[in-house]
Specification:
alpha+beta; 12 helices
Length: 465
């Protein structure tokens, strides 16, 4: 009987090991194929299942010039996944009774402009404050003090009334970082180090620092006309703001993920608030919590956030119903971090594979021609502000539209455009297109564009799919 029992155990172990090997092979093939298609120099990946790291690996190069391989210990920039750490710091102060989510921020900023009188801390956390992105006169190469940053933010007009709608706002999270300093008496980066990174053993997590010697630090890259170029330089102070300026490894993020499954760092009630959709003034909700995007695929919940900054992309995708987390870092600003993370998740659980999107009948070919013309003019650097509403032009010109043009130009020759979805919201027509470029092989660019009644562009989003 003992021999039979041992034999059964051996067979079961062999089958399990074979299944694991097959999964790993699929993951490797998928990541390598995407790196080649997207021209990504290096990727670091971690997969966590039932609270344990089941796979971790580095691919490609962390530094192209010196041909340094990516390791799991390679340090990448966080981009906006750093916002979830800022949000956690805020919730710590809430738990300590030092601030309240419904507090008006003017309580902490005595010289706040009149337009801020109805902005709450909750509004800043959920991107519903009306604050926009960095203003047009913001110089990414200037070394601003925290006070100078604050003055810049004060001068930037609100794009809508607090709570009226949702619009991604880096300035809102920069303001939260300044608020943390005011309330705690500590620079937000020091607060994170003392209250989050050290307690969790996130030994390589830290604020970006160009002067220090940081082992295993990766270099960031971008595509220019299809060729790899080094990241563009920004000032050291701009790389210390609370909207996402961290150095992290996949091991750091695995420890962070573990903390989110317990109550060592924050109470479960605080975490649940962080993963609750934002409520707008009209009672509607938007799928964003406190530094987390909220969604679902095939009925399975997703709590995630991406990051994009200075030659890097990052993604943490948590599937709580499946006890699965995928963490991805890439050192190319053009990389599709969501496709990498979701693609790996679908290999581990086929139920997480997104349905294949199908094109719909295009009943407005003139609109499609307009969008195609817009994309081509943007790539050529010839797009006019007259195509946009006043608010959209103010938000996009000149820096963001210039960056979009450079990204589009790197994709090569325009090949095809298909209408995927058409909806109407707030007196605007919203179109979502799938666009193919020859340099982009079998990857697609998803273009979402909102048009007013007089065919002005009220908003546009370009995202690899």
């Amino acid at each position: 009987m003992k021999k039979v029992f041992v034999l059964i155990l051996f067979v079961l172990y062999s089958v399990s090991g074979f299944a694991q090997d097959a999964t790993v092979t699929k993951v490797d093939e998928f990541i390598r194929a995407e790196m080649q298609k997207q021209k990504i120099p290096g990727v670091s990946l971690a997969v966590i299942k039932d609270g344990q790291i089941v796979y971790v690996k580095g691919y490609g190069f962390s530094n192209v010039e010196h041909q340094v391989p990516v390791k799991p210990e390679t340090v990448f920039q966080s981009g906006s996944i750093g916002k979830q750490f800022t949000a956690a710091a805020v919730m710590m102060l809430v738990e300590e009774g030092k601030i309240n989510l419904e507090d008006k921020i003017s309580k902490y900023f005595a010289d706040a402009p009149e337009t801020w009188k109805n902005i709450t801390i909750r509004h800043l956390l959920t991107h519903t404050s009306g604050m926009g992105d960095y203003p047009r006169d913001f110089d990414l190469r200037a070394d601003y003090t925290e006070n100078e940053l604050y003055k810049k933010i004060k001068l930037a007009p609100l794009t809508f009334q607090p709570g009226e709608k949702w619009a991604y706002s880096n300035l809102g999270f920069v303001t939260l970082g300044i608020l943390i300093n005011k309330v705690s008496g500590k620079f937000y980066g020091d607060f994170l180090q003392e209250r989050i990174f050290k307690p969790l053993g996130m030994t390589t997590a830290r604020i970006i620092n160009e002067a220090d010697i940081i082992p295993n630090r990766a270099s960031g890259y971008r595509l220019v006309k299809g060729e790899i170029k080094n990241q563009e330089w920004v000032s050291p102070s701009v790389n210390t703001t609370a909207d996402g300026a961290l150095y992290l490894t996949v091991f750091d993020m695995a420890k962070w993920d573990a903390a989110l499954n317990g109550d060592k760092l924050l109470k479960k009630t605080s975490l649940e608030q962080s993963w609750t959709p934002a409520k707008l003034n009209d009672g509607k909700t938007f799928g964003y919590g406190f530094g987390w995007m909220l969604g679902e695929v095939n009925g399975h919940r997703i709590i995630e956030h991406g990051g994009a900054w200075q030659g890097f992309k990052a993604m943490i995708s948590r599937f709580p119903d499946d006890k699965l987390t995928v963490i991805v870092f890439a050192n190319l600003i053009n990389a599709n971090e969501k496709k990498l993370a979701h693609g790996v998740a679908a290999i581990y659980n086929s139920a997480l594979a997104a349905p294949v999107a199908k094109a719909i009948e295009d009943k407005e070919p003139k609109v499609t021609a307009f969008v195609k013309d817009f994309l081509q003019k943007t790539a050529a650097g010839q797009v006019s502000q007259e195509m946009f509403t006043t608010e959209a032009a103010a938000a996009l010109f000149p820096d963001r539209i210039k960056q979009a043009g450079e990204n589009l130009k790197s994709l090569g020759i325009f090949a095809d455009i298909q209408l995927m979805e058409r909806t109407e919201k707030d007196d605007k027509r919203i179109y979502r297109y799938r666009v193919n470029y020859r340099n982009f092989q079998d990857n697609f660019l998803m273009v979402t564009i909102g048009l007013t009644k007089d065919d002005k562009i009220a908003g546009v989003q370009l995202r690899p799919e």
